[in-house]
TrEMBL record:
Membrane topology: Multi-pass membrane protein
Entry annotated with the keyword Transmembrane: yes
Family, similarity comment: Belongs to the YIP1 family.
Chief subcellular location: Golgi
Protein name: Protein YIP
Keywords, ordered alphabetically: Membrane, Transmembrane, Transmembrane helix
GO biological process, one term: vesicle-mediated transport
Biased composition regions of type Low complexity, renumbered to the chain: 1-15
Region (Disordered): 1-21
InterPro entries recorded: Yip1_dom, Yip5/YIPF1/YIPF2
Localization, UniProt: Golgi apparatus membrane; Membrane
Taxonomic lineage: Eukaryota, Viridiplantae, Chlorophyta, Mamiellophyceae, Mamiellales
Cellular component terms (Gene Ontology): Golgi membrane
Residue stretches spanning the membrane: 71-92, 113-135, 155-171, 178-196, 208-232
């Protein structure tokens, strides 16, 4: 009698553990379908931001996600960066203009808000789509080794380092701003390199795919960082 009463408890516990990692396959236009990509807690987000910054060289982001990549972190990282770059860019220009004696008055550039929104959300959406198409259609990476949501999550968390970078760039020194952005680009690009390379390596075409794909990913990411610096934190 005792063993029969305890069996359902053990069964329900194990099914609860499996349930969080199980993915829904319902109607794609329903809100419930996308809820699974926001099923994370604070510890999950913090551990993944740690992987994207302090452990950018490890290439262990997929293991940290443990089959449960999320869109919650990338969304709020992009939203935070939109605010910081729009506001911080304006403040940085204000600080740089204080020492000038040309008589030109500083004014708030509202255009930076829309541009930063387009840049961060656009990059975090378009770049994973292009990479997924290349890996799936041209490189032949199997679906067992390739997840579109995992790519979006990887790109989103790769932008984490630009949060402290944008705060440091309010300092009215072009040399310091460039050093901050170069350091941020190095961390962010290293994170993408070490996590995209194993995915590209699953291609049956081998090294013929890995080199060009990884080079394109890192090059595009560095270019994105340079554009951020020139548009938001450049003193003229």
């Amino acid at each position: 009698a005792t063993s029969s009463s305890s069996a359902p408890l053990a069964s329900s516990s194990s099914s609860g553990d499996v349930g969080r990692g199980a993915k829904k396959t319902g109607w794609i236009f329903s809100a419930a379908y996308y809820q699974q990509w926001f099923d994370v807690d604070t510890d999950d987000v913090l551990s993944r931001t740690f992987e994207a910054t302090a452990k950018c060289y490890a290439g262990s982001f997929a293991r940290a996600c443990d089959g449960n990549p999320d869109l919650y972190g990338p969304f709020w990282i992009c939203a935070t960066l939109v605010f910081l770059h729009a506001m911080g860019g304006n403040y940085a220009q204000y600080m740089s203009s204080k020492g000038k004696s040309d008589g030109e008055e500083w004014s708030f550039d509202i255009e930076k808000i829309s541009v930063s929104s387009a840049m961060f959300f656009g990059y975090c959406s378009v770049a994973p789509v292009l990479l997924y198409l290349v890996l799936r259609c041209f490189a032949g990476v199997p679906t067992t080794s390739l997840s579109f949501v995992q790519l979006v999550s990887t790109y989103g968390y790769a932008l984490t380092v630009y949060v402290p970078v944008s705060l440091l760039c309010v300092v009215p020194s072009e040399a310091f701003r460039w050093m901050s952005f170069i350091a941020g680009m190095a961390v962010s690009a290293s994170f993408l390199f070490t996590n995209v390379r194993p995915i590209a390596g699953a291609s049956p075409k081998g090294a013929a795919v890995v080199g060009p794909v990884v080079t394109a990913v890192v090059g595009a990411h560095v270019l994105f960082g340079i554009l951020l610096k020139l548009f938001f934190f450049q003193s003229f």
